[in-house]
Amino acid sequence: MVHRPTSKPHGDRKDWQNLKRLLPYVWDFRGRVLVALTCLVLSKVAIVGMPLVLKEIVDALDASKLQTNAVLVLPMAMLLGYGALRLAGSLFNELRDAVFARVRYHAMRGISLRVLKHLYSLSLSYHLDRKTGGVTRDLERGTNSLSSILNYLVFNIIPTAAEFTFVAVILLGRYEPRFAIVTFVTVASYIAFTLLVTNWRMHYRHEMNTLESRANSFAVDGMLNYETVKYFTNEQYELKQYDNTLAEWETAAVKSQTSMSILNFGQGAVIATGVTFMMVYAAQGVVAGTMTLGDLVLVHAMMLQLFIPLNFLGIIYRALKYSLADMDMMLKLLDTPQQIKDKPDAKALQVSKAHLRFENISFRYNAEREILNSVSFEVPPGHKVAVVGPSGAGKSTLARLLFRFYETSSGAISIDEQNINQVTQESLRANIGIVPQDTVLFNHSIEHNIRYARLDASHDEIIHAAKMADIHDFINSLPDKYNTVVGERGLKLSGGEKQRVAIARVILKNPKILVFDEATSSLDSHSEQQILSALEAVAEKHTTLVIAHRLSTVIDADNIMVLEKGRIAEQGSHQQLLEKNGLYAHLWELQQEERKTAELLQDVV
User: Fold this and answer.
1) Where are the alpha helices (DSSP H) in 374-510?
2) Is-contact 551 388, C-beta < 8 A?
């Protein structure tokens, strides 16, 4: 079974290990990190220095200590110093942000590239099993979470810790220990209360998000199936299930807001209690003559200044937990094991004759489902071998095994006596071209989709390939010609037009081994005959494996194998198989009758 990360925000996570895994992406710019941290420290020195200067200003303006000659000079210098410190705090804050921007975005780029590269390295079974929306969501959220975590650390948590350290040093150095003790107890109580209440109220937020998503899914599903809703007059049913979900969401939202009010009031109560104790002690010191009015302003300003960043602690804590969960889901993508790997000593495939051989190939997706059982055949150089049979017989699986999208359960596939398991996957696929049954195109121009087979191809080569695929005239009839954008997955083109683009693409690639997997399945009889001649020209002097449902497309094959329930039931030329009067002859008779019926219906129309 393929492992997929769950989308749950909580679970068995290893946050510290995950953070360590991200360090290499930050370490690339360790010089910038050092500069950013230096700016951070300087900014906090300036910010903490402001209350110290403010104390001197208040003391200087204390009427009992004013001196006539110093009134106009000393306060002005202090005021200018206060302004300079405020300006310096802002300057170093912005410098920190600017310097650290390269670190943050480089880390986002690096981890995104690594995850996408890993996804490309995973086997086809993973990608068939995955949910594309879930994977892209995990990748996007994980990348953004890395940015958020770095932001929280560098712009919130570390600065707050630095400021608390400076305040503690000043209070311990200048005043009685009780001021520092009150600060420590207040901050510790504030943090403990915030974390406890935030953890308690987070499930309300989770419930809100779940119910909101459910309500949206009801609304979107109903809108997408608007006609069905109208056909069966089920508007009230759709509205009821939407409203019932919103009623639950409303209840959870009220609880969330109420718990937020409790959190805010509790935080305010802790701050008020701490500030009150500080002011009482400071006022006692002023009355006793051990402290000045400036000292009272200083401890009050420091206390309030310290709690400004702490006011966001609950928000930051909650966001940090979400970010760590999102990052964990992204890193689990990285931890998804590769099922198909190149061997350490794998060499590049060397193709000269292009002799293809399947020896005793057995394959099963799982223990209960056997697809192929001891299948053996070969495709000599320059020959065309066809594989036909009923749906589900395992025909297309042969092509996937040849491309090493899956590993065989037993047996071996070789090209020019080289086991494909012993060569690099890149060199293997570079020597094979395929026209698949379901052609999926990029949301780009027709020219780009054809050139995708060989990125350095010239425009003239692309036109030549399109002509051989009998699609050049159609492309030229379009307003934008070769620059026509085909839409997502090529949906602006018909099935036959997409297959012709795929044929042009494989012609441009010009590999030594060709695979046609139901290459004309989306074509009508007339178009099929036109394409068949093109395919014959393409396959000339190439080793060709044709997987087909329509037997009329393979009557010229050198050898035709009939697969039934994963085994080769019979093989031979078209005429030989008809003479055997077996499964192939039966399928041929059925398809001829279907073709005659279709032609009669077309004549009537």
Assistant:
1) 395-402, 425-430, 446-451, 459-468, 472-477, 495-509
2) yes
Query: pLDDT (tens digit, 9 = 90+) per residue, 269-279?
Result: 888 888 888 88
Whole-number Å distance between alpha carbons of 288 and 219: 70
Spell out the residues 6+ positions from residue 426 whose beta carbon is closer than 8 angstroms to its own. 348
Q: At what angle do helices 132-152 and 313-335 cross, to 10 degrees?
A: 130
Is pTM beyond 0.90? Reply is no
Give the other-Cβ count within 10 Å of 559's Cβ.
20
> What is the tens place of the pLDDT at every residue in 81-105?
888 888 888 888 888 888 888 887 8
Q: Which helix (H) or strand (E) holds 345?
A: none
The residue among 92, 56, 292, 51 whose CA lies nearest residue 183 is 51
Label the pairing between strands 432-435 and 543-547.
unpaired
Integer Cα distance of 246 and 410 in angstroms: 55
Reduced DSSP (H G I as helix, E B as strand, rest coil) percent helix, strand, coil of the chain, to 5 = 65, 10, 20
Other C-beta atoms closer than 10 Å to the C-beta of 601 total: 9
- Sorted by sequence, the CB contacts under 8 Å of residue 2 that are 6+ apart come out as 125, 126, 129, 130, 336, 339
Helices within 122-176 (DSSP H only): 124-129, 132-152, 158-174
C-beta of residue 184 within 8 angstroms of C-beta of residue 306? no
Confidence of residue 70 (pLDDT cuts 50, 70, 90): very low
